[in-house]
Specification:
The protein is an alpha+beta fold. Helix content is 32%, strand content 17%. A hairpin with a 5-residue loop joins strand 1 and strand 2 (37-44). The chain binds zinc ion.
């Protein structure tokens, strides 16, 4: 039950996707029975209903490179629990252990997308044995998309780090005075 109170504070259900910018957002937090908090990040690479969504080839190449880079990071690698694309092809979810904020992992994501934007060589895990559709990868487009997102991250403002949450008027006692 406690889990839900944590979830509702920063849930992507409350996000108006027509107002969402590209950026790095906390999508949600979950608490395990042990008390450990997990943070899910929204890596929004394309602005919904404004930018073209990523191609499947770019999404797929980015997924392999991003997961490989993040899991191999000396500082944060052991906190990476899950990396996966959004079905709408506008970004990725990254789940990490710890009660974290966007600014905590901004330097990590800047490093990751700097790496992907310059990547040259064999994409990790891109074989028939290791992947379900390894031919559907477009490294060239992934590098372009990574460079665009990198440019967003290095100049991130509040609108790129905090979800646009709907605000409602407070009820006041003014009428009773
Ligand atoms: Zn794959």
């Amino acid at each position: 039950m406690e889990q839900n109170t944590l979830n509702t504070n920063v849930s992507s259900f409350n996000v108006d996707h027509t107002k969402l910018k590209c950026g790095l957002f906390v999508s949600g937090k979950d608490m395990l029975d042990s008390g450990l908090v997990l943070t899910t990040f929204d890596l929004r690479m394309k602005r919904p209903y404004h930018d073209e969504p990523m191609t499947t080839g770019s999404v797929h190449a980015t997924e392999h490179l991003l997961a490989d880079y993040l899991r191999g990071d000396d500082l944060w690698g052991n906190k990476i629990l899950y990396v996966g694309p959004m079905g709408c092809r506008t970004g990725f979810y990254v789940m990490m252990s710890g009660d974290l904020g966007s600014k905590d992992i901004l330097p990590l994501m800047i490093r990751a997308f700097d790496y992907i934007s310059d990547f040259d060589g064999e994409i990790p895990g891109a074989t028939q044995k290791q992947c379900g559709n390894y031919l559907d990868m477009d490294l060239e487009q992934a590098r372009t998309d990574a460079a665009i997102y990198y440019n967003v991250l290095i100049e991130a403002k509040k609108e790129n780090l905090v979800y646009p949450v709907k605000r409602e008027k407070k009820k006041t006692n003014k009428g009773a005075l």
